[in-house]
Design goal:
Layout: E1 17-18, E2 22-24, E3 27-33, E4 40-41, E5 48-54, E6 57-61, E7 68-70, E8 75-78, E9 85-86, E10 92-93, E11 98-101, E12 105-106, E13 122-125, H1 128-135, H2 147-156, H3 166-169, H4 173-176, H5 178-182, E14 189-196, E15 199-205, H6 209-223, H7 225-232, H8 246-270, E16 279-284, E17 287-294, E18 297-304, E19 307-315
Parallel strand pairs: 4-7
Antiparallel strand pairs: 1-3, 2-3, 3-14, 5-6, 6-11, 7-10, 8-9, 8-13, 9-12, 14-15, 15-19, 16-17, 17-18, 18-19
Length: about 325
């Protein structure tokens, strides 16, 4: 496994390679390594939620003195005693600038109060089951537009069918965050493929390892974790090893890794992922933000010429 063949055809992915798969329960992560792209502000330490102007109107700030922020696609913010919001799209924010998103969506039906830029907030990425619906609502200024999809998402997992995403993200947070440690990012890793069961659920590529490290928990635990959590319960440790010597344990572990790698290679070979024609959404200097939404895959990505800088693509039928 050494190519990202599922990326849009116009994107040059020749410098990227895939690493050894890791597995926790039904969630499998394949590390992606490749060339870092300098000058991009990371999303947790560099991108700040300024405030919610009104329901469905969110302001984000890039307080850095240099470097552009690429807002993670479908990022959302949780804070006690306030209406939680998520974004339907990515965007560029220049150094020292604030950007207002008038097409944000509330993800906590009937909760009052506005988010402010406080230290007790934390961010997530929308669960993959909701991402196609959110992407198709970009540009639509209606704060309640995702409540129906959230209600269906909750009902799918036996929860009250209301537009309250915190029923999963907050109340199941202790369980979901186990994926953070069971699947471990590696030095130099700047992306990942995520499989739920045997199906490719998402392809996430960051500009550099620092950016990926800061978005890792939001992706593994909240974007792809719920589908794996509810399909098989908490992340398992795998079958016990039977060898009784150190050499035997090493050989058994190596054989297990080869087996998982072979299995994932088969999943990749049969994944029907070929993004459709991109639609350019926004430019910042030489960077271009594009959307794909065709057939089994959708999402957004950023390029500089044909060089891939950022990508967040996901299965639409998750």
């Amino acid at each position: 496994m050494n190519q990202l063949a599922m990326l849009p055809r116009a994107v040059d992915a020749s410098g990227f390679r895939l690493g050894t798969p890791q597995r926790a329960g039904t969630l499998t992560m394949v590390p992606v390594f490749g060339p870092a792209y300098p000058g991009i502000v990371p999303p947790r330490s560099g991108l700040k939620l300024s405030r919610v102007v009104h329901y469905g109107q969110v302001e984000l700030t890039n307080p850095a003195s240099s470097g552009v922020a690429i807002v993670p696609l479908h990022v959302g913010y949780i804070q006690d005693a306030a209406q939680n919001h998520a974004l339907c799209r990515s965007a560029f924010i220049a150094a020292g600038q604030t950007l207002r998103f008038d097409d944000a969506c509330c993800v906590q039906e009937s909760q009052g109060g506005y988010l402010a830029g406080r230290d007790d907030q934390w961010f997530f990425v929308l669960p993959v089951e909701l991402r196609a619906a959110a992407l198709r609502q970009r540009g639509v200024a209606q704060y309640s537009k995702l409540w129906s999809a959230i209600g269906s998402f909750n009902g799918r997992y036996g929860l009250p069918a209301r537009g309250h995403l915190e029923q999963v993200l907050t109340r199941q947070r202790a369980g979901l965050t186990q994926f953070q440690s069971r699947l471990e990012p590696l030095d130099g890793q700047l992306g990942a493929l995520f499989f739920v069961g045997g199906a490719l659920a998402g392809v996430e590529i960051a500009p550099d390892p620092a950016y990926f490290a800061e978005v890792w928990t939001a992706l593994a635990c909240f974007a792809y974790g719920p589908a794996a959590w509810f399909s098989a319960g908490e992340p398992g440790e795998g079958a016990a090893l039977s060898a009784t010597s150190v050499d035997g344990l090493r050989a058994e572990l190596a054989a297990r890794r080869r087996g998982v790698a072979d299995e994932v290679a088969e999943w990749l070979a049969r994944a029907a992922w070929q993004p459709g024609e991109p639609v350019e959404e926004e430019r910042y200097l030489g960077l271009r933000l594009s959307t794909v939404d065709s057939g089994p895959v959708a999402g957004q990505y950023v390029t500089d010429g044909d060089r891939l800088v950022y990508a967040s693509l996901f299965a639409t039928a998750a």
